[in-house]
Amino acid sequence: MTVIRVALVDDQALFRAGIRMLVDSQPDLECVGEASNGEEAVTLAAETMPDVMLMDIRMPVLDGIEGTRRVLEAAAARGEPGPRIVVLTTFDLDEAAARAIRNGASGFVLKDADPEFLLAAIRTVHAGSSVIAASATRELFQHFDSRAQPTAPPPSFGELTAREREIFLLAARGLSNAEIAAREYLSEATVKTHISRILGKLALRDRVQLVVFAFEHRLV
């Protein structure tokens, strides 16, 4: 059995203790270290090389948004992929969670989520998927500041084929691979291939970042 190495980053020691107990209660999970701010998280990631890092948004010294960027930037400088980062947030921190995802986080979990959901989220991101369903992520990013001026899509968006743009828009609206396949009369394998190519062309890490990209550029 593969054991998933988990690191915790939160400025509240009591909260960390609770999460550590939850993680260590699972036979396939192991807590390998804790940090109280984003700056400490960079050192922790380099020393313990966790598979998944749970990162709080609001912390002293260095918040989770910048902490996420620095952890992944440092890993890239070492030639490593870095941990899959899940940001911990609350309902009123939607835009902050979005900024963390732009910085490379794999998704978000609400701090009052059920323990079972948090455990499932850790396993999900470790497997390479988004931490939350695309439809729920889409609802989150609909709360972006509507007054912000949209930015033009990068030239790479123009490299998408007509079919890839169709798949992109459906994925950005929250449809799963199965739903896209049924709607477009394609196999799920074909849809998965299209999604992989889209992510590659747009230099996006996963479907969560695809949704952010779509809303950021007002494509949906």
List the SSEs and their pairings.
Elements: E1 4-9, H1 13-24, E2 29-35, H2 38-48, E3 52-56, H3 64-77, E4 84-89, H4 94-102, E5 107-110, H5 115-126, H6 134-141, H7 162-172, H8 177-184, H9 188-202, H10 207-216
Parallel strand pairs: 1-2, 1-3, 3-4, 4-5
How would you briefly describe this protein structure?
This protein has 220 residues and is an alpha/beta fold. It has helices at 13-24, 38-48, 64-77, 94-102, 115-126, 134-141, 162-172, 177-184, 188-202, 207-216; strands at residues 4-9, 29-35, 52-56, 84-89, 107-110.
Give your account of this protein's structure:
The protein has 220 residues and is α/β, with parallel strands linked by helices. The chain folds into two domains: 4-132, Response regulator (Rossmann fold, 3-Layer(aba) Sandwich); 155-216, Arc Repressor Mutant, subunit A (Orthogonal Bundle). 50% of the residues lie in helices and 13% in strands. The chain is built from ten helices and five strands. It has helices at residues 13-24, 38-48, 64-77, 94-102, 115-126, 134-141, 162-172, 177-184, 188-202, 207-216, and strands at residues 4-9, 29-35, 52-56, 84-89, 107-110. A five-stranded parallel beta sheet has the order 2-1-3-4-5, with helices on both faces. α1 links the parallel β1 and β2 (29-35). The chain is globular and about 50 Å long.
